[in-house]
Amino acid sequence: QLKSKLVEEREKTKVAEEEAASKDKKREEQVAKLASQLKQMSEAMKKERDDKLALHRSIKELKAKEQKLNKELESTKKTLDETMNESESTAQSLLAEQDSLRSKAESMEAEAKKSKADRDQQANKVEELSGKLEALTQNLNAMAE
Predict the structure, then answer these.
(1) Rounded to an integer, what distance in angstroms lies between the CA atom of residue 83 and that of residue 77?
(2) What value, to the nearest 5°, has the Cα angle with vertex 57 and ends 53 and 58?
(3) In b/e form, how buried is each residue of 45-61, taking b as 16+ CB within 10 angstroms?
(4) How many Å separate Cα 36 from the centre of its chain?
(5) How far, in Å, CA of 78 to CA of 59, rounded?
(6) How far apart are CA 46 and CA 121, in angstroms?
(7) What is the pLDDT of residues 7-52, one digit of tens each?
(8) Model's pTM, two decimal places?
(9) How far is 61 from 69, CA to CA, in rounded Å?
């Protein structure tokens, strides 16, 4: 009876050992699986961190480019405004010069008309005086004969 209890206890112990070994094996598999998942998660987190840093660098570079382009745009606007102001000033100056030349041309045209009228009047006077001189010359010639 003692022997059978001992055999029975050994079998229970053996079954308990096998169950414990089976549980240990399952736990080791779970631990390995969790370790693998942890490793994957760590790698994924590292990749995400690297991506985040790369994205921040890209954003920083884009902001620097944007600032540079904004400065260039402002400079170009300023140059354009200055050019437009100079062009406007030049146009105003040219219009004033054109008005001045038009006035001079009108004045010279009026003076030319007046001179022509004076010349025509003088030509008439010369013709009249020539006629009188001719008549006097004929009178003198008639008296001299």
Answers:
(1) 10
(2) 115
(3) eeeeeeeeeeeeeeeee
(4) 54
(5) 28
(6) 110
(7) 888 888 999 999 999 999 999 999 999 999 999 999 999 999 999 9
(8) 0.46
(9) 12
